[in-house]
TrEMBL record:
PROSITE patterns linked to this entry: RHODANESE_1, RHODANESE_3
SUPFAM superfamilies: Rhodanese/Cell cycle control phosphatase
EC number of the protein: 2.8.1.-
Record keywords, A-Z: Repeat, Transferase
Domain Rhodanese per the UniProt entry, residue ranges: 16-133, 161-272
GO molecular function: transferase activity
Protein name from the UniProt record: Sulfurtransferase
Amino acid sequence: MSHLVTVEELGTELSVGAPVRLLDVRWRLNEPEGRPAYLGSHIPGAVYVDLERELSRPGHPEEGRYPLPDPVQLEQAARRWGISDGDRVVVYDDNDGVAAARAWWLLRGHGVHVRLLDGGFPAWLHSGNRLARGDHISTSGDATLSASSLRTISIDEVANAVRPGFLVDVRAPQQYRGQVSGLEAVAGHIPGAINIPTVTHIDSRGRLLSPDRIRETLRSHGLEPSTPVIVYCNNGIASAHSTLAFESAGYQPQLYAGGWSQWSSSPGRPIAIGRTPADVIVAA
């Protein structure tokens, strides 16, 4: 099953009345509240999803910035969005699919048939398809989420010096190198991590590159589909998009959801600065 759906495919499904649930997951780190944009214009029938309140849970700082929701919380949210057992779900945003991928990753990991709209809301706009304004509230669904099959990994497992395979930091190069810290107090990367930014896998129109192109990039860094891989970002959001890219190319990565926000706030964790996996270790 493809992880993606094109605007043309979605338009056809909606035109024939296919049972598709649409989730609008607009969110950006500098504009975390996407509801105003959603109210102004969205795909007809789409329900707004609050990433920070529904795809995350309140947590302690040492857990990272956006801890994963517990299964009961996620199931209750899915029912609020109108999802019932057997429904097909499409998620989208207006930022290259990065936020929507968090919803894709979580829902798929609990047995939901979910796809990400390739190119997102901008692609829908450019296609000339119909738009809706205001809030859309669906009738509550009855979805029962399956036990989690999410491939996650803990901070202590990431810290294991003999971990097999590759640790991939998917943040921007300036964050990886320690040139900027973003929202975290400390800059740098986890020692041993290589840098393959999430945007590497996205074209100029916000669409995911082909599996062959993604595989070519990953192999240029020494990663083969059979290679054990762990991906992380600042907060478990961009890394979900990289997971989507990796899986489309035949890889099976684990996701370190705590990310740099957890690692950098955990006392005693070593930190590397520079262009390579372990240029300069600045703390231990």
